[in-house]
Specification:
- The complex is a heterodimer of chains A (391) and B (159).
- Chain A has 391 residues and is mainly alpha-helical.
- Chain A has a single domain, classed as Ribonucleotide Reductase, subunit A, CATH 1.10.620.
- Chain A is 58% helix and 0% strand.
- Chain A has helices at 10-19, 21-27, 34-37, 61-68, 101-104, 109-118, 137-161, 173-198, 211-223, 244-269, 273-303, 307-330, 333-343, 350-375.
- In chain A, helix 7 (137-161) runs antiparallel to helix 8, helix 8 (173-198) runs antiparallel to helix 11 and helix 10 (244-269) runs parallel beside helix 12.
- The longest helix of chain A is centred in the last third of the chain and has 31 residues, at 273-303.
- Chain B is of the alpha/beta class and 159 residues long.
- Chain B has one domain: Nonspecific Lipid-transfer Protein, Chain A, CATH 3.30.1050.
- Chain B is 40% helix and 23% strand.
- Chain B has 7 helices and 7 strands; from the N terminus they run αβααββββααβααβ.
- A 5-stranded mixed β-sheet of chain B has the order 4-3-2-5-6. A two-stranded parallel sheet of chain B has the order 1-7.
- In chain B, a hairpin with a 2-residue loop joins strand 3 and strand 4.
- The longest helix of chain B has 14 residues, at 92-105.
- Classes of the chains: A mainly alpha (391), B alpha/beta (159).
């Protein structure tokens, strides 16, 4: 291996380690023990005497917080220490991008993480794949197209969310753990839809073009003062995803709110017990993500330094997000038509299926408006989800 | 390793049915449904922790069923002001059809799952004052479906 000024071999590395003062002292029996001898709460050692008792569910983070008194405060310090830990005196400061509780918290966050762990499932073994039943060819093709679309949609969620993990201050372990669990959820969704597409005689269908939706928002985004980044990545450049507030609103509230309704629609449309069970399981995961998004929005609007300015900025963001996801989800020909075929019990019933699609869309829109109003961002009267779909 | 799917798991260890049919709807019937759930702790643990207070309205009569952690912790007749996260409502005739269907088939078929029934919205409705409460119906849907599918093990008579 080459460092900046010399080639280093494994033997060099071992020699360097052996020369460290600590190991020279240790060879003479001189231990460091600063961590061992430090007084709890004195800065080096964190806490002592906590004896958390398991509740009925097991030992939850809520139980641990309650026993230790280590509930989250308002600001995370600029260090790597987990909340409640002391710090190596030699450790330096560690700046984090997201340090304030109002930027990330939701009052249900800890509970949602525990729920996520408890309700994990396995796409390999928890779906009764051996009992998949053959569908008429047009129905199987439509379902495969729907699954192909959903596989893409789940990638979008993971790809947007995961890069935010290292930005959260370690003081707020709850958000890191929850978003990690969400990434696992999204991975499992990608997995289960891929498996479904390939398990019943069909296959993966047509990947939809995302470009149209991105172009749609870029013009109004620029007009609103939101500018794209310069990484060259379509997602990173998307002005909808420039802060955690924006990411959470767009992904957890708008995107996953829509996906939740689509999963409910998928469960409704499922013609077999296996397809029903797939959509039932993904629906649960998605509703958990939406629950975080809505409650985080509420916490942010109640706790941010300037809630009125936050609210107005969020309305501008919501304008764009609703346009983006309307285009992404509800206007794609392959998505509209595949769902209409499933809802109409075949290509011959596509007209009736379109009516069902529109009816489900109206319910989705109403639930979105109720959810945002509950969180303190009333979108009625200015929502860009059209009241009626244009067909 | 023997892999047991959720569906296969649901078929094991059916509880002993009662010997006398219970009237639907009645507190005794919903208590019996809760007993079916309590008799399968491993299944409910596998479905995951559940936190929901769901109202079940059968015509003009109503009950509240509370799920906490891995089990049903309360079945009660609903009174005005009793808090629920959401309410599942249908006429006695539609509930009867659902219960008879589950008893005959062993579980809801694709047209009779709770989500399908409320999404079509023609006979069963899902309502609640708080959308986040209504969303709990989706968050815990597999548990709720398992719960109502337990009707297959409740010997039932109708008024």
């Amino acid at each position: 291996m080459t460092t900046t000024d010399r080639v280093i071999t494994p033997a060099d590395f071992a020699e360097d380690l052996a020369k460290r003062p600590y190991f020279e002292k240790l060879r003479k029996g001189d231990l460091d023990l600063r961590w061992f001898e430090a007084e709890p709460g004195g800065g080096v050692w964190g806490t002592w005497g906590s004896k958390a008792e398991p509740s009925r569910r097991g030992l939850t983070l809520m139980d641990v917080d309650s026993a230790s008194g280590l509930a989250a405060g308002l600001v995370g310090p600029p260090v790597t220490a987990p909340r409640g830990a002391g710090l190596d005196p030699d450790a330096g400061m560690t700046p984090w991008e997201i340090n304030d509780k109002w930027e990330l918290w939701a009052d249900n966050l800890t509970n949602l993480y525990e729920e996520a762990c408890s309700r994990q499932w396995n796409a390999t073994a928890d779906i009764d794949w051996r009992h998949l039943e053959a569908l008429p060819p047009d129905m199987e093709r439509a379902l495969c197209q729907f699954c192909t679309f959903l596989t893409m949609a789940e990638y979008l969620a993971t790809d947007v969310l995961a890069p935010w993990l290292p930005k959260f201050n370690t003081y707020f372990h709850e958000i890191k753990l929850f978003i990690a669990s969400q990434a696992m959820d999204e991975a499992r969704h990608t997995e289960v839809f891929r498996k479904r597409a390939l398990a019943n005689g069909g296959g993966l269908g047509m990947a939809i073009a995302l470009g149209g939706a991105l172009k749609l928002i870029n013009a109004p985004a620029a007009a609103a003062g939101r500018t794209a980044g310069s990484t060259g990545s379509p997602l990173a450049d998307n002005p909808l995803f420039s802060t955690w507030r924006d990411v959470s609103y767009c992904i957890h509230v708008v995107f996953e709110g829509a996906v939740l309704s689509i999963f409910r629609f998928g469960e409704f449309l499922g013609k077999t017990d296996v397809d029903k069970s797939i959509f039932r399981m993904v629906m649960q995961d998605e509703a958990r993500h939406v629950a975080y998004g809505a409650m985080h929005l509420k916490y942010l609007l109640e706790g941010a330094p300037d809630p009125d300015a936050q609210r107005e900025d969020l309305h501008r963001l919501a304008d764009l997000a609703e346009m983006f996801f309307t285009d992404l989800f509800f206007m794609q020909p392959a998505t509209v038509e595949s769902l209409a075929i499933l809802a109409g019990d075949g290509i011959g019933g596509v007209g009736a299926g379109l009516e069902v699609y529109k009816d489900v869309y109206r319910k989705l829109r109403e639930e979105y408006l109720s959810r945002t109003a509950r969180a303190g961002l009333d979108r009625r009267g200015r929502c860009f989800f059209p009241e009626e779909l244009p067909f | 390793m023997q892999v047991t799917s959720v569906q296969e798991h649901e078929r094991v260890a059916p509880p002993e049915p009662g010997t006398e049919p219970l009237l639907f709807p009645s507190s005794e019937w919903f208590e019996a449904l809760a007993s079916v759930a309590r008799s399968q702790p491993e299944r409910y643990r596998r479905l995951g922790a559940t936190e929901i207070r769901i109202g079940i309205d059968v015509g003009d009569s109503g009950w509240r069923v509370v799920f906490e952690d891995y089990e049903v912790t309360e079945v009660a007749v609903r009174h005005p002001g009793m808090a629920v996260d959401c309410t599942l409502s249908a006429s006695p005739e539609d509930w009867r059809e659902l219960v008879e269907h589950i008893r005959e088939r062993g579980s809801a078929d694709p047209t009779h799952t709770l989500n399908s029934l409320v999404l079509s919205g023609t006979r069963f409705t899902l309502s609640g004052e708080d959308q986040l409460g209504v969303d709990r119906f989706y968050r815990f849907n597999a548990t709720l479906q398992a719960f109502i599918d337990g009707a297959k093990d409740v010997l039932t008579r109708f008024a």
